[in-house]
Specification:
5-stranded antiparallel β-sheet
């Protein structure tokens, strides 16, 4: 299932920052983990117009948000605690997005 929503690029960066803040190290990530890490939205870059966060300072984030046109975005999969460690705070993609954006346009596609 794909979750689609409307947001600005700044809001997408803030969603990424929220995911990083609540992510934890997995595996060898503990070698690079920095508990004092402060993420600013200015530090988060969009790659080819998309948000793609894998490991950040040892934290397992695994978040990909794709721009599908103008200010419309989608997250292609449901999060799992094995990879998206931010699910302890935001158990669904919708909860993570709604930590920043009040979603009035949601479309689910199979």
């Amino acid at each position: 299932m794909t979750f689609q929503f409307k947001a600005t690029k700044e809001q997408i960066r803030q969603i990424g920052a929220n995911a990083i803040d609540y992510s934890r190290p997995i595996g060898l990530g503990f070698l690079y983990h920095r508990s004092d890490l402060v993420i600013r939205i200015e530090d988060i870059e969009l790659e080819d117009g998309n948000l793609n966060l894998d490991y950040v300072a040892g934290r397992c984030v695994k978040l990909f948000i794709r721009n599908i046109g103008d200010e419309m975005w989608e997250i292609p999969d449901s999060p799992t605690p094995d990879y998206q460690t931010w699910v302890t705070k935001y158990p669904t993609n919708e909860a993570l997005v709604e930590s920043v954006v009040k979603c009035d346009r949601r479309l689910d596609k199979h």
